Known about the structure:
Layout: H1 4-26, H2 32-45, E1 50-60, E2 63-74, E3 78-83, H3 90-103, E4 107-112, E5 119-124, H4 129-132
Parallel strand pairs: 3-4
Antiparallel strand pairs: 1-2, 2-3, 4-5
Amino acid sequence: MMMKSEIGDQVSYDVIGCAMRVHATLGPGFMEKIYQRSLAIEMNLKYLNYIQERNIEIFYGKTQIGMRRVDFFVEGRILVEIKSVSKLDDLHITQTMNYCEAAKLPIGLLINFGSKSLEYRRIYNINHPENRKS
């Protein structure tokens, strides 16, 4: 039986594989929406369960102050944020970290289709109980 972290690792591995196939097929240069639609097709072929463009609530203390839309929630465990920029920067990483924390998920994937080679980062929510141990 796989532990939760192993399941998350396998799902993130599967999503990254799907993203690699999309990038190999399309290459860089398209808008995020094109990559999002293509990644959805690849995840369907891999039988991954996901919710596309799900809103997450943002709170300041106990007061909801806004909403943000995340590209994918995969298998109820991993948030996927897509970019199509020449290079990922700290702002993209921080944004994904904040989204993971707001969604109360242990891990997020930040995937950039805009560079010559696919870029991806696993982003861990350090405040999630699963990640506090490590």
